[in-house]
Amino acid sequence: MSGKGVEYWRWSEYRLTVPNVKLEKAKVITAGIDVGSVSSKAVVMVNGEIYAVAVMRTGSSSPDSAKKVLDWALEGTGLKPSDINYIVGTGYGRVNVPMANSTLTEIACHARGANYIWGPTVRTILDVGGQDIKAIKCDEKGRVLSFLMNDKCAAGTGRGMEVLADLLKIPIEEMGAASLKVDEEPDPVSCTCVAFARTEAISLLRRGWSKEKVLASYMRAMAIRMCHLLERVGCEKDLVITGGQSKNIGIVSRVEEITGLKTLPPPNWRENGRDPMAAGAIGAALFAKALYEKNQNKA
Amino acid sequence: MTVVAGIDMGVQNIKVVLLRDGEILSHGLAPSGFEPEKAARQALQEALEKARISLSDIKHVAATGVGVELAPMVNSKVSIVSADAMAAVYLFPSARTVIDVGAEESRVIRCDGKGNVLDFALNERCAAGAGAFLEAMARALEVRLEEMGELSLKAKGTASISATCVIFGESDVVSLIHKQEPKYEIARAIYDALAERIASMIHRVGLEPDVMLVGGVARDVGFTTALKRKLETEILIPKYPELAGALGAALCAMERVGGSRR
């Protein structure tokens, strides 16, 4: 992307271990691996509780990304991939998670993961990832009732943010806050096609718009697209946002304003691992536990 | 002697065509860059120099194209759809369906023998139906766009990708690379996908022969081959397909000063 100097588009990769979970008491160790178009997430669970999480950039090869992110999650824990009883793969690259015992759609996993993160009151999930927008309705157990997604067009997804970070030279994690520093919310950009994000932004800058105003206009248009999906699926509270854009305050606040609903705030994920960006992997690890136990009972 | 100019303010290039008494006198072209107005003056200057005339010899300037609002020295404006239709029947009197595939937009126009627009379909605000799609796919495939057309001709057609979206198309290309599909097959899949997309626009307005292809992408042999395959028909391509919009604007300018189109 930018090649030299600061890479404004680069978001923080991380791994963490949840301190209170005791590995010695492990009866069942499961993992969920969510290989997305932009980020790969791995969650390791001990007896159905989050033990370790890793979030990193997806490489050009899905199998490599799946292996790398799981290895990173296990780093320093003393666990090996072979210690894991059951692995579920999910996400856009799910067919390419070689170590998975089975694969599930990210829709089911996000709903299950959101239920775990926020509890049984969650009814609508807006998952905004690198190139997907999904609006999912679920019941109190996190079972999917219906969903809609952008299956034909990536306009308004997270990828556009990377392009703009690079162009505007604003670190990607500060863009949401920057977009809120406008006196008055501008009209949305007419075109959110990711391929045109650059030229669209350049033409606005040329008109004398500030960087913040360009971001506000672009994020407004993104939020409107997301809210169309929410409206079509039938948005009910509690509403939550998962995926990478759950960390973008510029998107979250605009979705809240347009829908008139407050989203449930993200929990203290740096301590308990319940990261909304990793909701798919969390759900996958929970399904892994259920599938493992089902198999054990059969045997 | 009446000289007029047509300017096509394209996204990628600015094109200028000069007409003298209905005959093409010269043309100029400059990359739009960040200052399209400056580029337009540059393209016009090039055309003037080639024709050995000066700006004061020009009676009327008509502009068209995406950036028409930024065009300098303009006496009148014309829609790109009308400009394309006028240019089409001027170049090939038998043309009835005009396909214009530009850098960021594409359009299909059905016209009568006088260059009047009967129906049209547009692809705007989406990169998947225009030259930008090929550019992005060439990048994903790691081949030069200028070489991708030739490369695709070797293929038999064993692969396919979706052209509903540039971003999804990139993912398709990357996964084909990982499946070790040969690059020439992927290249053909890319052109087939764009041809498919353009064909669906043609079906919206109805295909009436003769079919003519203009716009910068008409220079790409990979695309023209794929489109012929898809439409199962011959396609007329002018010598300078990227100049159609500017030519149409110039023809319009000619009309506006009371001269005949030919």
Question: Which key terms come to mind for this protein?
Answer:
heterodimer, A: about 300 residues, alpha/beta, six-stranded mixed sheet, four-stranded mixed sheet, about 20% strand, globular, B: about 260 residues, five-stranded mixed sheet, 8 helices
Notes on the structure:
The complex is a heterodimer of chains A (299) and B (262). With 299 residues, chain A is an alpha/beta fold. Chain A is built from nine helices and ten strands. In chain A, helix 2 packs across helix 9 and helix 6 (211-233) packs across helix 7. The longest helix of chain A has 23 residues, at 211-233. Chain B has eight helices and ten strands. With 262 residues, chain B is an alpha/beta fold. In chain B, helix 2 (80-91) packs across helix 8 and helix 4 crosses helix 6 (183-205). In chain B, the strands form two sheets. In chain B, strands 3-2-1-4-5 form a five-stranded mixed beta sheet. In chain B, strands 8-7-6-9-10 form a five-stranded mixed beta sheet, sandwiched between helices. Chain B is globular, with a radius of gyration of 19 Å. The longest helix of chain B is centred in the C-terminal third of the chain and has 23 residues, at 183-205. In chain B, a hairpin with a 5-residue loop joins strand 7 and strand 8. Chain A binds chain B through residues 37, 60-62, 92, 131, 152-155, 157, 159, 190-191, 193-196, 199, 202, 206, and chain B through 11, 34, 104, 125-128, 132-133, 136, 164-168, 171, 174, 177-178.
Task: Draw up the topology in text.
The complex is a heterodimer of chains A (299) and B (262).
Chain A: E1 14-17, E2 29-35, E3 39-46, E4 49-57, H1 62-74, E5 86-90, E6 102-103, H2 106-118, E7 124-128, E8 133-138, E9 144-149, H3 159-168, H4 175-179, H5 197-206, H6 211-233, E10 239-242, H7 249-259, H8 269-272, H9 279-298
Parallel strand pairs in A: 2-5, 5-6, 7-10
Antiparallel strand pairs in A: 1-4, 2-3, 3-4, 7-8, 8-9
Helix pairs in contact in A: 2-9, 3-5, 6-7
Chain B: E1 3-9, E2 13-20, E3 23-31, H1 36-51, E4 58-64, E5 76-77, H2 80-91, E6 97-101, E7 106-111, E8 117-123, H3 131-141, H4 145-152, H5 166-178, H6 183-205, E9 211-214, H7 221-231, E10 235-236, H8 244-256
Parallel strand pairs in B: 1-4, 4-5, 6-9, 9-10
Antiparallel strand pairs in B: 1-2, 2-3, 6-7, 7-8
Helix pairs in contact in B: 2-8, 3-5, 3-6, 4-6, 6-7
